[in-house]
Amino acid sequence: MMNLRRLALVSGFAVLSALAFSPKAQAQNANVDFSGEIGPACIINSTENGRLEKNLSGTSLNTILPGNINVSCTDGTTFTITSITDNGTVLSTGTYTENIDFITARVLDGGIPVVNGDLSPNGVGSNFIINPIGTVSELQLGPITDKDYAVELAVTNTFSGIALNSGYYKIRVNVALAPQ
Questions:
Q1: DSSP state of 161
Q2: What per-residue confidence (pLDDT) applies to 171?
Q3: Residue range 131-147, pLDDT digits in tens
Q4: CATH number for the domain harbouring residue 87
């Protein structure tokens, strides 16, 4: 009789445990995103930063790893380098503006220049500016889908022949797209 009571007690716990811990159906949901476009329109899908390296004389920093802009456009677009700005440069002496004769940035499509933008922070290279900041590229025909455009930069003091000051150069190139 005692075994029967134990059996009933254990069976009761087993049934209660099974009910208490039985898996219940979980509600499921999902997001379904839609996209579309009405052109002309462009989107910058992604960007990657570039890397500069000094030349042997120390008078220039040149692109060793281009930056990148990946774009999609329903139709064609133009590119414009709208600014080249100091983005936190830290120099041992002097300032960004005093230290640099000439900067040129360019956007390339498969190694072929699309647009250039030049400036002279200290004014020494002003006579050598061919494509001032704000120069608009020729129309890049569309549609353009997930296309990479390289961005290169050169910082130089070759006009004055003075080595660039030691420090960390952080320079931002702003590129605008104008859907056509």
A1: T
A2: 95
A3: 999 999 999 999 999 99
A4: 2.60.40
In the chain, at which residue ranges do the beta strands (DSSP E only) sit?
42-48, 51-54, 60-65, 67-73, 77-86, 90-91, 102-109, 112-119, 144-156, 167-168, 171-179
Q: How many CA atoms lie within 13 A of 121 on its CB side?
A: 20
Please compute the mean of the pLDDT values over residues 5-24 and round it to a whole number.
Answer: 57
Tell me the CA end-to-end span of the chain in Å, nearest whole number. Answer: 92
What pTM value is reported for the model? 0.80
How many residues belong to the chain?
180
The neighbour count for residue 129, using CB atoms within 10 Å, is 17
What is the sign, positive or negative, of the torsion defined by CA atoms of 102, 89, 63, 145?
negative
How many domains, the chain?
Answer: 1
Cα 61 to chain centroid distance, Å, stands at 20
Structural domain range at position 91: 42-179
- Select from 87, 152, 93, 157 the least CA-distant residue to 122: 157
**53-78 per-position pLDDT tens digit:** 999 999 999 999 999 999 999 999 99
Report which residue type is found at 122: N
Residue partners of 7: CB distance under 8 A and separation at least 6: none
